[in-house]
Specification:
The chain is mostly helical. It has one domain (6-92). It is 73% helix and 0% strand. The protein contains four helices and no strands. It has helices spanning 6-49, 54-88, 104-109, 117-122. Helix 1 (6-49) packs antiparallel against helix 2. The radius of gyration is 21 Å and the shape is elongated. Bound molecules: zinc ion. Residues 95, 97-98, 100, 115-116, 118-119 line the site of zinc ion (ZN). Zinc ion is lined by residues 95, 97-98, 100, 115-116, 118-119.
Length: 124
């Protein structure tokens, strides 16, 4: 690495953001795993006591909510992993559509962006 320009600096900064975001998303997934596991236990208990227990519907709803959030966090981890892979192969910061540079400010605001602001605005 001989280039010590601002692009290299901002890439390192974005990589740090990505790693922090990945850790936070995984921590949330682990928390939700515990919530979902606890709720599953409670649902089984409710079923043996009374399958028409109104608590059952609430628990099922809360479990569905927790699962939905967990899925979104896992999708986020995958996006972050893809961005980190681009950092590793030096394709990070290059627009996937036009091949032009993605502005460092955009990458700091949205590290998982795959297109430059122009292509993103065009919706392509
Ligand atoms: Zn572009």
């Amino acid at each position: 690495m001989s280039t010590a320009d601002s692009t290299a600096d901002s890439t390192a900064e974005v990589e740090a953001l990505l790693r922090a975001e990945r850790a936070a998303a995984l921590a949330t997934v682990r928390d939700l795993d515990r919530v979902i596991a606890g709720v599953v236990e409670a649902t089984e208990g409710a079923n043996t006591d009374d399958e028409h227990d109104p608590e059952g519907a609430t628990i099922a709803f809360e479990r569905a909510q927790a699962s939905a959030v967990r899925d979104r966090q896992l999708a986020r981890v995958r996006e972050v992993d893809e961005a980190l892979a681009r950092v590793a192969t030096s394709t990070f910061g290059t627009c996937a559509r036009c091949g032009g540079p993605i502005a460092p400010g955009r990458l700091l605001a949205r590290p998982t962006a795959t297109r430059c602001i122009t292509c993103a605005a065009l919706g392509r």
